[in-house]
Structures are given as structure tokens and as C-alpha cells.
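Closing statement on the iron/sulfur cluster sub-project.
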Amino acid sequence: SLMITDECINCDVCEPECPNNAISPGEEIYVIDPGLCTECVGHFDEPQCQQVCPVDCIPLDPEREESRDQLMEKYERITAVE
Ligand code: SF4
Ligand code: SF4
């Protein structure tokens, strides 16, 4: 999963780009739901939020490293529920 750091300027550019609806306005800055972020695996080659963020504040979450297989499993879980 990716994470949003406190450098976020609440510009709202990333939220509509997320194919998994994992991004939402948090109490102070935008937040990513790690249960929904597949790092865009299953949808795109590159994380879409990272591509559009003007201040480059969406790194990989070092506490939530996942393999491509795990991310694909998450994608399949999410899309199965829909
Ligand atoms: Fe959404 Fe992709 Fe960004 Fe994860 S990496 S929050 S799935 S846009
Ligand atoms: Fe924050 Fe970047 Fe998303 Fe804008 S695009 S809301 S700065 S994380």
C-alpha cells in the first residue's frame, strides 16, 4: 500500500484517479485505506495517485510492504465483492 505524508496540500487531485476508491479526505490531510490500495495492481502499470500528486507526497508505506502477488490477491478480493 502507498501512504500520504503530511506534505499533502489537500488539493483533491489524487482522489478521483484512484481505481479502488482508496483515497479520501481525512481529518487533516488526504488518506489512503491500506485495505483498498493495490498500488494500482490489476488496473494500471503505475500508481495513478503518484502520477498526479503535485507535491510528490505519496510514497510506499514502509510498514505495509506487499508483493505483487499479494496486491493481485487484494485486487481480486475487492473486485469479487463489488
Ligand atoms: Fe489508489 Fe492506486 Fe494510489 Fe493505491 S496506488 S491509492 S490504488 S491510485
Ligand atoms: Fe494530497 Fe497529493 Fe492527493 Fe493533492 S494529490 S490531495 S497533495 S496526496
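The longest helix spans residues 68-81. With this model delivered, the sub-project is considered complete and its resources will be redirected to Aim 3.
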